[in-house]
Amino acid sequence: MRYLLMIAGSEEPTEEQLALGCGGWSEDLLERGILVGGGGLHPPATATTVRVRDGEVLLSDGPFAETKDQIGGYAVLECADLDEAVDHASRHPAATYGTIEVRPLLG
Question: Where does the YCII-related domain lie (predicted)?
Answer without folding.
Answer: 1-105
